[in-house]
Amino acid sequence: MSSLLAEKTQARPNPRQEESAKAKGASPRRTTAVTFSRGILGVIAFLAVWEIAPRAGLVNDYFIPPFHVVAHTWWEMMRSGEMEKHIRASLVRSAAGFFAAIAIAIPLGAAIAWYRPVREFLTPVLEIFRNTAALAILPVFTLIFGIGETSKIAIVLYACFFPILLSTITGVAGVDPQLLRSARVLGLSPVATFRKVVFPAAIPTIFTGIRISGAAAILVLIAAEMIGATAGLGFLINYSNQNFLIPKMYAAIVTTTVLGVFVNYALVALERRFSRWRA
Amino acid sequence: MSSRITLENVGQTFWVRGNDDKQLREFVALQSLDLDVAPGEFLTVVGPSGCGKSTVLDLIAGLAKPSGGSLTIDGKPITGPGLDRSVVFQQYTLLPWRTAQANVEFALEARGGLSKKERAERARKYLDLVGLTEFASRFPHELSGGMKQRVAIARSLSYEPQVLLMDEPFGALDAQTRERLQEELVRIWQRTGTTIVFITHDIEEAVFLGQRVAVMSARPGRIREVVAIELDREAAVSGRERDLRSTREFADYRHRIWSLLREQNLRAPAPADLPDAIDDKELTRV
Fold first, then answer.
1. CATH node for B5-84+164-285
2. A148-180 pLDDT, tens per residue?
3. Do the beta carbons of residue B66 and residue B6 sit within 8 Å?
4. For the whole model, what pTM was predicted?
């Protein structure tokens, strides 16, 4: 069986050869096909275990219904529009909080990294808030904003805010000083330097934070909806659980998973698009 | 197209904290340094590691202010960076998210006063000058080190500065690429008539390029001697195969400067002190 040892030490062109051939070392197409089908096989194996274990009586089929039951329930919920209602509620909340966090955290992070007094003034306060868990502060938000949409959007905003803020600070502060020197030589104004040199250089780092926030947005929202809501996937999970609608609960869980996978993929694709210049 | 640069009695000190005793103290990088660069001249500066070569360049570029003395360009004091001067750094300093052409246009955007189309045309013209016509749409990571430095040179020349300051621009390149770029630089200099101040630690490079070679002394840096080089560079760069570097005159000049530097090194601090004496820049990039 091909091991890491064989993989890492297999014959391949060295960087100078790659440069002179203007190409990158690659594996034959067959290998990619094998990789892909093995991955699919893994997923099928997992679903098969899920299907067979309850049927064979290895686990209680009331608590863990076979996969086809969950899939059927999910399909029924999709057809009746019940699932769509919850998905929409969750998506609107997490998107609102997520984009609000981007809109606030990026300018603030840039200001913190750019202006030393701002940095020195705000760093300790932000450090305090950063270490206050989002869910710990949820009751406060519920007290202030009530049980409606605002408190949920606020909690998502809070959870998404810090990864983006910190990555913006890191990205802006980490810009290559040589690039700044060359901008000064060209007599670029500070605003133009920021716009044309610092911000583009920071974008890949900022995106790392945005990706982390994308995952956090869904995670925190589900938890918040479990605590107090009348719609949303978190509510659906909690509600079905309490009413012993176990297949529904699994359908909701699977939906959050699929949602998370999609959001992450979309953000990775976007990140790649903005970071193409990175070798 | 060219300017006279005059440095009089220039001194530069920095605050440093000792590695061993953690004491804050003054570090004298340059002391009473005098230098005169004629309009249109190609001057190279050599000196032992850590003698303050790059500091001199930063001062002329206006990136730093001297602690003492005066720097003037055509009689006007240097107060900050300006578009009459341009700098080529060792690390290329290209914007990695812009193509070669867009990197040249970047300088023109900073200069202002040109339409988008004019900028593109001008960028093309200078990429032609450095022989990168076909690579205009490549990103820096798709270019070799020598190509990147040529883009940087094209960018520096594109806004037609009167003085081109170069800080060991070919230091990170392999020997063959370096020789080719040296010849190209001499050709560009002859064509544009720009004043060039070129810093290097490579004696051969200094002799090959410079009409005059300024030899700096070890810390605190000052100009020890300026050697005028009378070589027939024309033949070497015009493509007629003549190996200037292997001629007798070249060897004599090389030896002369080598001896001057050797004297400096003998008087320089003991090897134990050496890591301290290496430029920060060299340490971070090597």
1. 3.40.50.300
2. 889 999 999 999 999 999 999 999 999 999 999
3. no
4. 0.80
